[in-house]
Design goal:
single chain, 240 residues, mainly beta, 2 domains, nine-stranded antiparallel β-sheet, four-stranded antiparallel β-sheet, 15 strands, globular
């Protein structure tokens, strides 16, 4: 297992493109110098300068090696987790859904045969791979799917599911008011799309293609909220 870096935003990578506006040369008189081109570039979103670690697991032992580490959820609102008792995953009922920036403490990694009800996000394979974890301050153990094994080959989604460093520090420039809202899993006016996504989760429907200038409806664990963004600032927040 090795460590690299990635630029990510949950399960979607975003490329920053400089937008240039060229002004044509204007000739007023035969002897008048041509006006030079003027190029305007879009401001760089500081979020895209945050580098995120990768662990690149390719075997069960790599997941087990996370034991004792605190991880934070990147794919908020997507993955259900299950009780883990006596060495078994209880798929019969969920214990909840992992939320954006929520911390967990890795304890182990196990394999289990998953029912169809548990394969919406992570395919079953021959066996699912689940990360066993506790929440800070608790000894209760849970398990969340992070990959699978199919014909002896492992596929893991851990690098998309987790932050390996505290996002509160990675994105400290968001400020205390925004982070308070994120930790309470609510949206407030002035938030960017990335910030709202961290607060309400990644399950959403977009009303346009231009990020930061569109309306997005967030599932918000079955309590939809519609947020309108103008110049990448939330200008309207309406429960559906």
């Amino acid at each position: 297992m090795n460590t690299g870096q990635k630029v990510a935003l949950g399960s979607v990578a975003v490329a920053v493109v400089a937008v240039g506006i060229e002004l044509a040369y204007l000739h007023h008189e035969r002897n008048e110098d041509a006006k030079p081109k003027v190029v305007e570039t879009a401001p760089i979103d500081p979020d895209y300068n945050v580098f995120l670690k990768k662990e690149r697991p390719d075997k069960l032992e790599d997941e087990k090696a996370l034991k004792g580490r605190t991880l934070w959820i990147s794919t908020g609102g997507q993955l259900d987790y299950y009780p883990y008792k006596a060495g078994k995953v209880d798929y019969a009922k969920t214990s909840g859904t992992l939320l954006g920036a929520e911390p967990i403490v890795a304890q182990d990694a196990v394999e289990a045969v998953a029912p169809k009800t548990a394969t919406f996000r992570i395919p079953a394979g021959d066996k699912q791979v689940l990360l066993v974890f506790t929440k800070p301050g608790s000894t209760d153990e849970y398990a969340v799917p992070v990959g699978n094994r199919e014909k002896g080959v492992y596929t893991f989604q851990s690098d998309l599911i987790f932050f390996y460093d505290d996002p509160h520090k990675l994105y400290s420039f968001w400020g205390p008011e925004v982070w308070k809202a994120i930790d309470e899993h609510k949206a407030i006016l002035g938030m960017t799309e990335h910030e709202v996504q961290m607060a309400l989760g990644q399950v959403a429907t977009s009303g346009g293609q231009e990020e930061g200038n569109r309306t997005v409806e967030y599932n918000n664990l079955g309590h939809p909220i519609r947020v309108t963004f103008v110049k990448n600032k939330a200008t309207s927040i309406e429960p559906e």
